[in-house]
Amino acid sequence: MSETADSVLGNKQSAGVSADQEYAWVSASREGDTLAFNRLVLKWERTVYNVALRMLQDREEAAEATQEVFFLAFKGIRRFRGDSRFSTWLYRIALNHCVTRAKQRPPGAHFSLDDANESIGSAEQLRIAETQSSELIRAEKRKRVLTALSHLPPDQRAVVELRFFQDLTFEDIAAVLETPLSTVKSRLYAGLETLKIRVGAGA
Amino acid sequence: MKSECSEYQKKIAGSFLGDLSETERKELEEHVAACPQCRSEQAGYAEALELLKSAGDETVPHHFFVHRVEQIPNPWQLFCRMKPVWQTATAAVAVLLLMVSVAALSRVQIRFSSGGWAMSFGGTDIEALRAGILKAAEAKSRQAMDGRIQEVWAEIGQSTAAAAQHQREYLDAELLRLDSKLKRRVETAEGNVRADTQNLVYDVYQTVSQQRAQDLGIVNLRFDAIEANNAIKARQTNNILGTLLEVAELKLEQTGEQK
After folding, report:
1. Distances (CA, A) of A134 to A131, A139, B8, B17, B48
2. Which residues, 6+ apart, have CB-to-CB distance to A115 below 8 Å?
3. Which of A196, A198, A199 to mutate to test the interface with B (most CBs of B within 10 A)?
């Protein structure tokens, strides 16, 4: 992963958590320390959940997939040798799992993109949110993003996620997905064009 | 769209992906500045990416935790978890145990003779082995026979007891059935007798009544006959008495005349 990407991810996820601290948690997790692994979960759950949400466009399924990703990560953390960053390894698990889930869905599966399930849905939170129009605008944008992404095949969705939401370079994306660089580029070009068309059409 | 614009379509996307060289980027900028269609295309990509960047992340619906599920590892998993030294030692012990087992099963004979160890497969003394096997088989057979006899006796005992019990139950059931049957018959007979008796009494009453009526008729007739007879007899008696009186009067008259 590039330094830029790492810094972006680090700023997003782990205010106050140093790289050394994360390394210590990973080491403890490899020895079977559940508490240490759950600290990693707490640090990365928002990223993984949003990756899953953009990949699956369904909040309930995204939450399910997030839980499964962390379970898979915990099961396989002994195999994580530390030769790449933990985030790279976690992205690989999350995206592979979400792509598999997305491909297994029946054609024309229903997506629940209603705002009712979003975390601002309770009456009290809604009252607060009404006074914060910027948050409502962002919620509406998220809905448009999910709708536009739903028109992409899962493989294109994965590269778009890593490039535009996680700011990874082509090389990092190829490493995370274990895919040739040329394939990554062709998927990105195709995905970006579809997004432009869908957003322009008001998706 | 102009034909040259189609060449820039991919480059516009490439510029947003950071996939253009410096030269390509400058060339594209010059073209876009002069081409409204490509500017529109560029604006479309910019709008899409602006939307992606500004949407932000959602908060998680709940926290996610991982719990350890303890499970008992199987022998192979235990072996895989061992350090290489222990794996080697365990493998050696396993191979040794396997060899001993195979040797025991194949009746390998290992002997010290002629100044060294000798190992042979199969029996060197076939007759002794055969005799031993026969003896063992005979003993086994006898033991099995004794066992079987004991079992048969036990089965006979159980069978006899079961038969006796069965017979007792059968007899009880039969007695019960006969008793019930007898009771039913007695009740039926009683019913019949009761009905017959009622009929008989009625018949007797009828007969007696008729007889009585007949008897009364006969008595009446006899009374009438007696009465008639008595009247006749009375008349005859009166006639006789009248005659006798006449005779007596005559005799008296005669007597008087004679005197």
Report:
1. 9, 9, 36, 28, 19
2. A121, A139, A143
3. A196
B-chain residues near A67 (CB < 8 A): 64
Q: How far apart are CA B252 and CA A175, in angstroms?
A: 194
B106 three-state secondary structure: coil
Instruction: Please name each of the domains of chain A with its CATH number.
Output: 3-113+128-200 (1.10.1740.10)
Interchain proximity A148–B51, CB inside 8 Å? yes
Listed in order, strand segments (DSSP E) in B66-208 are 108-113, 116-121
Helix axes B3-17, B36-55, angle to 10 degrees: 20
List, for residues A16-60, the tens digit of each pLDDT value.
678 888 889 999 998 888 999 999 999 999 999 999 999 999 999
Residue in chain B lying closest to A47 (CA) = B57
Are B79 and B71 spatial neighbours (Cβ–Cβ below 8 Å)?
A: no
From the list A50, A144, A163, which residue is nearest B58 (CB)? A50
Asked whether the beta carbons of residue A138 and residue B10 sit closer than 8 angstroms, the reply is no
- Contact state of A144 with B51 under an 8 Å Cβ cutoff: yes
pLDDT tens digit sequence for B197-229? 788 888 888 888 888 888 888 888 888 888 888
ipTM over 0.85: no
Chain B interface residues facing chain A, Cβ-Cβ under 8 Å? 10, 13-14, 16-17, 19, 44-45, 47-49, 51-68
Q: How many CA atoms lie within 13 A of B10 on its CB side?
A: 10
The pTM assigned to this predicted structure is 0.53
